[in-house]
Amino acid sequence: MTNHADLDPYIAVHHYGLGDLLHEQARSRPHMIAAIDGEHRFTYAQFDERVNRLAGVLRARGVGHGDRVLWLGQNSMRVMEALLASARVGAIFCPANWRASVPEIAAMLDDFDPKVTFWQHEEIGAGNREARGGWKPDSHWICHDGCDGEDSYEALLAAADPESEFAPVDTGTPLLAIYTAAFSGRPGAALLSHESLLIMAWLALQSQKIDEHSGYLVSGPMFHIGVLMGTLGTFLAGGRNAFVPRVEAENLLRMIEAERLTHAFVPQPTVVQMREVNKDGAYDVTSLFADNQMSDWKIPMVMPVDAPAIQKMGGYGQTEIGGLTSVLWMGGQGAGRAVPFVAFKIGDEDGNEVPRGQTGEIFARGPIVMCGYWNRPEENARRVVNGWHRTNDLGKRLEDGSLVFVGPKTTMIKTGIENVYPAEVEACLRQHPAVADVCVIGVPDPKWDQNVKAVVIARDGVAVDATALIDHCRDRMASYKKPKIIDFVATLPRNAHGFVDRAAVDAAFGGGGYPSVG
């Protein structure tokens, strides 16, 4: 075997992570605006200094390579700062779902075991405090929006060292953790590397036609990969990211007009609200839309009409494979063709490739695919087959090589932009002493695509009503996961193997509208 030790000096030359990207943006675009958040406006040079200071704050609290940092709050430019500071110290950063219930936050704390937690006081502070009190009261928690008697984010930054000092990072190092909806009843954090995020950002830049003059409205939740794609793409291009804490129609209209924003993430229900607020044309949003009634809105990822992803809409992806990675803007039909840096295979249960036209599981490999799930060794072993990641999704190849997404291998409900897995809701309902058995289905809804419905067998002799079960779920889960409708039955249809027949439950109780393409 040939010895290439003489090339060893160049190993360090190839280290490059998100922290390096920010440092270069500060050199090449020092006076261009990087982030807008309320009254705050920071150039790339100022943003770089703030991240340097925050990295120092993390180091002072013992955060190093492989340690975890958790964000329990709504959208903010500080989410990006915490992500980039984590990149500089080699840590793994997780922006959690701010709608999570106290039991869900507690489970996340136990699972992710963060060394530092950034948390928000306004609106969601009570739940954060309760979860903290039941976990490790003496752990490092930093209040990002100002709290009396607590470690304050801005005060800590002001006192920190502004000097840049961070070790080179291998691009394959995990950086971002995103808790995905539960296939098996327990959510897991998919780990995406520096390399995966850089590729994802480049793809967003290309597909959404983002450049250094672009302004992106970060109005969707940053624990969603679809929102992060545009945010990171804008950061990579040297554009402006404008952050709002949550979706409020008038605030979005005001921000678009004031900053002349060109890109956004705006779900359909929010567009309906924005049209109502702006029916008299009080706000000029023509930097983003064709007119003030947003008549050209097509998908939540809003971009110029000549952007490739709008010209040819459609594709397939999931958080675990870096978002949309088979797309029509790359050509083909159905869900299009694979983007660079990922390969797809349609396989049987053992991972053997099946002929074109035959349905099988979608397998993926490449540098954009996740590094695995945090703290899930059994699931990681199950999900990797002969060097390929099994997606738990079904698909097929067409004769021209295009990919078609047939549907989730495990049933999934789509409500608004959120994914809800029946197994997780069923597991919650089974904790109630009055529930003997349950099947959760999705029923069509004109506004939200689907609503969550539970078909419940109650235990003999135990009194319970729908409101009690809905409240039980609301107290233990993010509110969007709870059933909106509950039907009580004596029995549930079962198949020949004794399992609940979901198709029969759908047919009998109005289920349908599940997400599928092709």
Task: Please describe the structure with a list of short key phrases separated by commas or semicolons.
alpha/beta, Luciferase, domain 3, 15 helices, 518 residues, 26 strands, ANL_N_sf, six-stranded mixed beta sheet, AMP-dep_synth/lig_dom
Topology, please?
Blueprint: H1 18-28, E1 33-37, E2 40-43, H2 44-60, E3 68-72, H3 77-89, E4 92-95, H4 102-112, E5 116-119, H5 125-133, E6 140-143, H6 153-159, E7 174-180, E8 188-193, H7 194-207, E9 215-218, H8 225-237, E10 240-243, H9 249-259, E11 263-265, H10 268-277, E12 301-302, H11 308-311, E13 315-318, E14 323-327, E15 337-338, E16 343-347, E17 360-365, E18 372-373, H12 377-383, E19 384-385, E20 388-397, E21 403-408, E22 413-415, E23 418-420, H13 422-429, E24 435-445, E25 449-458, H14 466-476, E26 485-488, H15 502-509
Parallel strand pairs: 1-10, 3-4, 3-5, 5-6, 9-10, 9-11, 25-26
Antiparallel strand pairs: 1-2, 7-8, 8-18, 11-12, 13-14, 14-15, 16-17, 17-20, 19-20, 20-21, 22-23, 24-25
Helix pairs in contact: 1-2, 1-3, 2-3, 2-6, 4-5, 7-8, 9-10
GO molecular function, one term: acid-thiol ligase activity
Pfam families: AMP-binding, AMP-binding_C
Domain AMP-binding enzyme C-terminal: 424-498
